[in-house]
Write a structure and sequence with these properties.
globular; 14 strands; binds magnesium ion; binds adenosine-5'-diphosphate; five-stranded parallel beta sheet; alpha/beta; 12 helices; Rossmann fold
Length: 365
C-alpha cells in the first residue's frame, strides 16, 4: 500500500506531496491539473518507465533538468522508494537506502494494476501492443521471464546486425554465426512461449469467473494465444526453429531481420467468441480491459500473496452505466485504489457509494 507520494519537477508540478489511505482514494480535479501525472509518477517507481512518455526526459517539468519521486509504502518489500532522473545522467532508483543496480530489481517491488485510456491501444491496436501488455505484466511477477526477455532482445539485436552484414555482402547462407545465435535463442524462446501460454491460461480462468459474475447474459471473454513457433519439448522446438530458419534464410537476409519466434506471437481477444478488435464498441473495449485488469489483480494476489494497488485513470470514461455497478463493487473491495476523476457525481452515477467514510478525496487545484 502506498502511504505518501512527493514529486519534484515532475510534469506540471514543481513540488507536490499527497497522502493516501487504505481503501478508495479519489484524485479529484479539473482537466490538466496533473491527476494522471501523479499516477504516472507511481507507475514510474514500479516499472522504471512511463506508460505513455516515449522518453523519460518528457516527464521533467519544462525548463528543469531533473525530476524526483519519493514514496512511502506499507506491506511491500521496501517502505521507502526514491526515483531520480537527471538530464544526460539518466535514472536511479533508491529503495530503503539501497541503490538498485539493475532495472530488473526495481520491476515488481511495488506490484500495481494500472488502467488508463491509453489501454485502448491494447485491445484495438496491432499485436505488438498486446505482446507488450502481457510482457509487462508477466515481468512484474516473474524475474526469470524478465531476464529471458532481456537476453532474447539482446541476442535478436546482434543476430539482426549480423543479417544486415550478410545482406550488404549479398551472402545468402546460413552461417556458423547464425547457427550459434539460434542455439542460444532456441531454449530462451521455448521458455518465453511456455510462460506466455501458462499466463494466458491463468487469465482465462479468472476472466471466466469475472464474466460470469459481471453479466447475467452468458457473455464470455477469452484470450487466444497463438505463438509463431511452438513445440511440446525443448528439443522439438529447437528442430522446428532450425528448420524454419534454414528454409527461409534468404528472406531473413534480404529483410535484415529475424522472422521467427516470440516477437511474432499473437494474442486474440474474443468476446462471445468474436474478435474484439473488429466488432466491439468503445464501451465494450473498456469493459474488456477493465475485467482484464481485475484478472491481473487476482493473479498478482494469488501468486505473490499480496494485493497490488489499483491505479485507475479516468476509469468511468466510456464505461457503460449498465455494467459498471458490479465492476465498481469489485473495485471498492480492493485493499487500495487510486482513482482519478473530474467530477464526484460521475462516480456516484456509476454506482460508487461515495458517502462511505473509507473514501479519501484528494483535491488537486
Ligand atoms: N514536462 C512537462 N512540463 C510541464 N508541464 C507538463 C509537462 N508534461 C505535461 N505537462 C502539463 O501537465 C498538465 C497535466 O497533465 P495531466 O496529468 O494529464 O492532467 P490531468 O490528468 O489532471 O488532466 C497538462 O496540462 C500538460 O500540459
Ligand atoms: Mg488525466
Amino acid at each position: 500500500m502506498i502511504k505518501q507520494l512527493t514529486v519534484k519537477n515532475f510534469r506540471i508540478f514543481e513540488e507536490k506531496t499527497v497522502d493516501f489511505q487504505p481503501g478508495v482514494n479519489v484524485i479529484l480535479g479539473k482537466n490538466g491539473v496533473g491527476k494522471t501525472s501523479l499516477l504516472e509518477a507511481i507507475y514510474f517507481t514500479s516499472f522504471t518507465k512511463s506508460f505513455k512518455a516515449p522518453q523519460d526526459v518528457d516527464m521533467i517539468k519544462q525548463d528543469a533538468d531533473f525530476f524526483q519521486t519519493a514514496s512511502l509504502w506499507e506491506g511491500n518489500k521496501y517502505s521507502k522508494a526514491q526515483a531520480n532522473y537527471l538530464k544526460k545522467k539518466g535514472k536511479r532508483f533508491i529503495f530503503d537506502d539501497e541503490t538498485m543496480i539493475r532495472m530488473a530489481d526495481v520491476i515488481g517491488s511495488f506490484p500495481l494494476v494500472f488502467q488508463s485510456p491509453e489501454d485502448f491501444r491494447v485491445t484495438a491496436g496491432p499485436s505488438i501492443e498486446r505482446r507488450g501488455y502481457f510482457d509487462r505484466f508477466i515481468s512484474q511477477i516473474s524475474q526469470p521471464y524478465l531476464q529471458d526477455l532481456i537476453t532474447y532482445r539482446k541476442l535478436l539485436k546482434n543476430r539482426n546486425a549480423h543479417l544486415k552484414q550478410l545482406s550488404e555482402k549479398k551472402e545468402y547462407r546460413y552461417t556458423a554465426q547464425l547457427e550459434a545465435y539460434d542455439e542460444q535463442l532456441s531454449p530462451i524462446m521455448f521458455r518465453i512461449v511456455n510462460t506466455r501460454r501458462s499466463y494466458s491460461e491463468k487469465f482465462n480462468k479468472h476472466l471466466e469467473e469475472l464474466y460470469k459474475s459481471t453479466f447475467d447474459n452468458g457473455s464470455t471473454g477469452t484470450i487466444v494465444y497463438k505463438p509463431s513457433l511452438t513445440a511440446k519439448t525443448e528439443a522439438d522446438f529447437q528442430i522446428i526453429h532450425r528448420e524454419q530458419t534454414q528454409n527461409n534464410i534468404d528472406k531473413e537476409i534480404i529483410l535484415r531481420r529475424t522472422l521467427w519466434g516470440p516477437n511474432y506471437d499473437k494474442y486474440l481477444f474474443l468476446r462471445n467468441d468474436t474478435p474484439l478488435i473488429h466488432y466491439a464498441s468503445q464501451g465494450e473495449h473498456k469493459i474488456w480491459m477493465t475485467l482484464l485488469k481485475l484478472a491481473e489483480g487476482e493473479i498478482i494476489t494469488k501468486l505473490q500473496k499480496a494485493e497490488p494497488i489499483y491505479l485507475l485513470d479516468d476509469l468511468f470514461a466510456e464505461l457503460d452505466l449498465n455494467n459498471s455497478k458490479r465492476i465498481v463493487q469489485k473495485i471498492m473491495d480492493a485493499k487500495q485504489v487510486l482513482i482519478t476523476t473530474t467530477d464526484m457525481s460521475d462516480l456516484r452515477r456509476h454506482g460508487m457509494d461515495i458517502s462511505k467514510n473509507n473514501i479519501n478525496v484528494i483535491e488537486i487545484a
